[in-house]
Amino acid sequence: MKSKVWLWVILAIVVVGAAVLIWTGQKPAKEVEVAKTVDGASFNPNLFVYVGAGDAETLDPSRAYDTASSEIMFQYYENLIAYKEGSLEEFVPMLATEVPSVENGLISADGKRYSFPIRKGVKFHNGAELTPEDVEYSFERNIFADPVGGPMWMLIEPLFGKASIEDLACEIAGVDSFDQVDEAALLKTARRVMDAIEVDGDKVVFNLNTAYPPFLSILARNSSWSSIINKKWMIENGAWDGKAETWTQWHNLDTEKQVLFEKAMGTGPYKQVEWDRSNSRHTMEAHADYWQGPAAIKTVIVNNGVTEFNTRKLMLQKGEADAIYVPVENSPQIEGMEGVTLIRNLPRLNNVCAIFNQEINAVDNEFVGSGKLDGNGIPADFFSDLNIRKAFCYAFDYDSFIKEVVLGEASVPYGVIPQGLSDFFDTNSPRYNYDLKKAEEYFKKAFNGEVWEKGFKVTLVWNIPNTTRKTACEILEHGIEAINPKFQVEVQGMEWATMLPRRREGRLPMVFIGWLADYADPHNFVYPYLHSKGDFMSFTGDKGRAFAAAQFDALINAGINETDQKKRIQIYTELQKKSLDQAPHLMLYDAYDRRVHRDWVKGFVFDPICPAQYDFYALSKSLD
């Protein structure tokens, strides 16, 4: 799940209640109290303002695969089950009334059939009541939509043993390309999906292809791809009509053509008022008919338009923001601030890397310069050379970055699996270190010596305003340029909503990006990072995908299909080692996290894999 960009536009407003009027153009709700001034800071118990990180790309559960999108959807939508507080292994009911188990008869003895009794009396934001048919439709619709590079592989794999709905259709048709699948096979594909997810009275039943240990985790809250949506409302708004023969009309649509691109209709504690995309601002209000009772805080504004930390800091001091995003390098400026809580070293299950694009889309691409190995650019296959990838890995000063930039709130990676899952790999294995002599050695081998002789010019892209990643780019730039004066590195910032499409188009030579666990299992890291159909390798061209298929796919498939824990550990240890040996990415650091909010914010509980910085429903504001 899932990098974040932190943005905001400051307005010089002292009273938060007045700010809402200016920001949203709305009249104040009757229950909103007049803001108070407390030690020079504005306080309004019915309004929460969060200055967040990077605006959402989409609000569609089938497409959203970044934390900036998922943290907004987390407030609007709900899942069948949720994690028990403080656990990544135990679950509690949510829209289902029971958590399936073999003991209660809701999971079959062979582990292939899961039944969920659906809660009655739950209302969507439009007043419609939740039904089992809504649940069935939610999963079928998302699976049929299955946008390339989206999250739906996590459901398609356990249900059908495939990475995508297109792969399933090709298998049924007996062809290699989705373009060759005939109408009869498309209809059979739809029937296969509809047979896999069925309504049985008050229950919804999932029929898996094989036993799949992480299946409940994939359905649990935090998983936006398993959000429950309203069938009737979706159809009325132009989404899939629920018919088997029409599904391809809604398959793999462009992001902005999807019905839920900028709309939301869930059962969650907050409902959408407005997404002001021009100002990167989301306004939401408490769902009055929420089945667990209305939220304590009536109005929430998530505003992602302030790029300058000093501006966010000032807003926090004045009480114009209740919570803000603080890059780790800026956290010392918050320490000791009156009326503010800073929580550091939170053990979030995530890591950060730079993806090497092994076959860049070089057509009219300013990021590759000349497009040749002539000192003024790079060829499209620049990173397909293992020597280049290893040279880059040795040119990054990991220890200085961790000590001086992230202030010790990180560790050097052992590979793509983070240390939070160290039970699955050998922590005595070697790691990359900063070694310019080794980097020089590999650069001299690259492209039969041409790189060393001719030099190159490459652009590194980071997501604005994530200054931590900007600094990482600059550290790598310094290391590479120190090796050979013919090596030129440029660092360029890009808005998150712009960077994601460029990555999918394969236009960026390298992408600095992070991954937050979708669920606590090593498969959730090795698949997106290393599998040829995973999120990170999917957009590295035919060369990158072929490389991943040859090096990693078989091992990854073996790992998720193995039920013997000792054998699983052996498989993931091997994958971890190969992820270092083959260097498909420059693994930068395993990260910790932090939260910064006013002391009047009550009820915060940290969740190591929640995409949202805050669960607004759990919060209240009090001066006590």
Task: Compute the CA-based radius of gyration.
Answer: 24 Å
**Rounded mean pLDDT score:** 91
CATH superfamily heading of the largest domain: Dipeptide-binding Protein, Domain 3
User: Structural class, from helix and strand content?
Assistant: alpha+beta
Spatial gap, N to C terminus = 36 Å
- Characterize the biggest β-sheet: 7 strands, mixed
Low-confidence stretches: 1-34
Topology, please?
Layout: H1 16-24, E1 36-38, E2 41-43, E3 47-51, H2 67-76, E4 81-83, E5 91-93, E6 113-117, H3 132-145, H4 153-160, H5 165-173, H6 183-196, E7 197-200, E8 203-207, H7 215-219, H8 231-236, E9 270-276, E10 281-286, E11 299-303, H9 309-318, E12 323-324, E13 340-346, E14 350-356, H10 386-394, H11 398-405, E15 410-411, H12 436-445, H13 450-454, E16 456-464, H14 467-481, E17 487-495, H15 496-504, E18 510-516, H16 523-530, H17 541-561, H18 565-581, E19 585-591, E20 593-598, E21 601-602, E22 620-621
Parallel strand pairs: 3-11, 3-12, 16-17
Antiparallel strand pairs: 1-2, 4-5, 6-8, 7-8, 9-10, 10-11, 12-20, 13-20, 14-18, 14-19, 15-19, 21-22
